[in-house]
Amino acid sequence: MDLAFHYFALIFAARCIIDSAARTLEIPGSGIVSENLQKLVRFASLERMKTVAHRQDIISEELPYAANRLTVHAHWMAFILLAGEGGKITFKAHYSSSDIQGLVARALNKDIDKINADLIGDFMREYCNLTAGVIKARLAEVGIHTGLSIPIVTRGFDEIWRMDRDVSNEIISIDAWHLKWPSGSVICTMAARADVWAAAQDLKDPTADNGTESDMEFL
Amino acid sequence: MSVSAKIEAIQNLHATHNIISTLEQSKSSIEQLVDEMPDALFVFDVKGTILKANLEGCRLLKVEPEYYLGSNLAKVFDVESANILFNKIQLVAQNPKSFERPHEFELQAITGKDESQPYHWALRPLVPLRYDKIPLIVLYGRNLVDIRSFERELSQIYSSIPIGIMSVGSRGQVEPNYSRYCEYLLQHGRYSGLNNGFANVGIVELLFEPAFVTMKASEIEACKLLVRAIGESEYWFESVKTQFPNLLRRRVGDSELWLKVDYHAVTADGVVQKILLIIENRTDLIREREERNVWIKRNESAVRRILEIQNAENSILQGICLDLEALIRRLDHALEADDFKAFKTGVDGVKFAADSAGFLTLKEMVEILEVKLAGEPGQELFKNRNELAKEYSQIRTECVELVRIFYTLNTDDDITRDFQHKLDPTLYKDITATIDQAIQSIQPDSLEAARDVLLKLRKHVLKINYLRLSTMEPFLADLAKVQSAHDRKLVKITFDWDSVLVPPELARPLRDVFVVLIEKSISGGLETPARRRKLGKAEYGHIRIKAVADDHGVLFHLADDGRGMSAGKLREILKEKGLFSDVILQKMTDEQVFQQVFSSSLLHKEKIESGPIVDFYGLKKFFDDYKVTDIRLTSQLGLGLALQFRLKSDTEVA
User: Fold this and answer.
1) Tens digits of per-residue pLDDT, A70-124?
2) Residues in B 367-406 with any Cβ partner in A closer than 8 A
3) Nearest residue on chain B to A152, judged by CA atoms?
4) CB-CB contact of A105 with A112 (8 Å)
5) Most exposed residue of A151, A171, B213, B401, measured as fewest CB within 10 angstroms of its CB?
6) Which residue of chain A comes nearest to B28, CA vs CA?
7) Which phi and psi angles does B192 have, rounded to 5°?
8) Rounded distance, CA B183 to CA A125, Å?
9) Rounded to a whole number, what is the distance in Å from the CA of B95 to chain A's nearest CA?
10) Is the CB of residue B57 less than 8 Å from the CB of residue B80?
């Protein structure tokens, strides 16, 4: 059982490293989160999912979500960080293996039995990467330049560290939504430092934009 | 930003990415280890909402890997167990710092297939990471199904092996975990059937006390040493161990139980902490051994007797055997009548016979008895009559066996040696005449006559196998000679039964009947020669034995000319025994009084030993068994006594 404590200790150490990296960023004055930023992230998450999964029947739904409550949404979690001089956004996709397994099988045109945990992890990493890429590009259009972290897949349980961290770093804008398709779903969350994203108010409504979509495909 | 600064930033970012990748892999490995650890692991909040369940936990509880996420912990337990668990969770949540050590307990878990499985749980807060924030709790569960199964198997083995295993603790008390077979072996009136069984019962009381009656004083003391040995050095235990009784004889109900006990010390630092007892039931083994010893002894005795008979001079053996038979009768009677003098004389006779024949064992046995008889003055001996009877019974067995083996070895002189098969000329004539008659009688109208002839023929044919009474005359004459010599009397015996035949199965009982009658007549009826001279009688007492055969059987008659029997004395005996009132007895004639000897219950005995007829009780039994009729006892005081009886013939068609 000591093994479990080593496990938690390692997670704790990893979190500290991430935190210390985040604190190096410059944090400007206060402001409110842009509604368009919220729309942008939701739009990006939906569209990129449709793209990587090769299916158009995926819909986005509101998720009743209490930000101050400790919630482990799913067994797995893939996440990516956008960070720049203007601030930072964490995008997370919470999923169960069985839900994504079907998507991957369909995308790769393979039997579902041949889709293992590694493939599922790679799929979700790529999904996070593509979603964050869209957000980064749109932010750049309004002069907000950000960098992308590498996408990471971990256990959904790690979400329990979120509240501590969010509170400690005053990230107060949190959004959560549900992407659903007939055989499964993914819960997406976004955490942004509200005061630094005032500039994002200049963003256009991404849903009204019929501009070019990425042709990038998974794998 | 200068180019170099940008390059540095990019390099920093790249390095950060690399280390995050490394951490992700490392974390993934740890996650895998947690998933595959052999126990179930749950992390949940204070309301019991499961935030994490490792893969092994899901596998043990037979659910899909992500099944429990978001479920309440109550899903893993039944209602009662969940209540107990939540009570413990509250304790942990309220004061997480006090749980430095996990809180451990056992509870049944419900699998995804609704099976109940035993688990050992360890509950503790998720410290040191979160105890000052939102409390989370970790529950580790070790599946006990295999352990319980193994325990059950072990318990079954432990209970089913037919050996009692128990340990004795510091105060000499049985420790609770003893094998169930002990309860069968050590059935105890006080402790069997109690809830605690033999737990904490003193080993001396439980194991040894029921066997104390069969143990020597030294063995009883050794039992107490066993308790003292606990706490002593191992060396001391080994030195006294040999004194502990290792074979106990206990009485269980009507039977005996032999227990073999092995003692093993359980030591620590050279000091005996407890003693392990292994108890086996050896009853069957010991019984078999005893039976085998008896068998060996019996066979050894038989061989010895055969050798003694073969070594003896054959010419005198038959006479010796006859003497031994007569002596046994006399000794039986003397013992029964508490006649010490007659008993001692009989013993002398046996010794003389044994010495003459060279039966050394019999002689030794008699000599031992003689010493005991000499050691006790006269009548005093009979205060311990049972002991005397026991001693005598060995001598009696030896005599009977010697005689039996002698007759077995000399088949010509078997039980019917006193009789001889010889077809009687008259009988032969009768048979042939009857056959002729049968041939002549077979006419169409003479079926009735033919039937009569055939019945007659059957009767004659049956008689072919009959024995002549006269052939036992030499035996009876010898007997009379021995008895009269013993009693210092002169006797003349005459037989009048030449042509009388009896069925072979009656030969031995009839011989015994006449033996008893002749012995009684000589010892109790006929006077000594001097007395007879005084009375004006001939010196030789005369015994007449007569038998007459007719169509209804054989009528026997025995008479002597001795002192006879007093009707008055017989009346007193009948009165003393409470068989008749004085009034009735006075009304009876002398003849009627004599008749009561065999017709009343005067000679009735509840238990008569099987074997030869040795006294009047046996005679009465013979009369009853063979439905003897026409019994008539007559006597005239001073003139003698006569007895007659009729044995029915069995030649009639049933």
Assistant:
1) 788 899 999 998 887 667 788 999 999 999 999 999 888 889 888 998 999 999 9
2) none
3) B24
4) yes
5) B213
6) A154
7) -65, 135
8) 69
9) 19
10) no
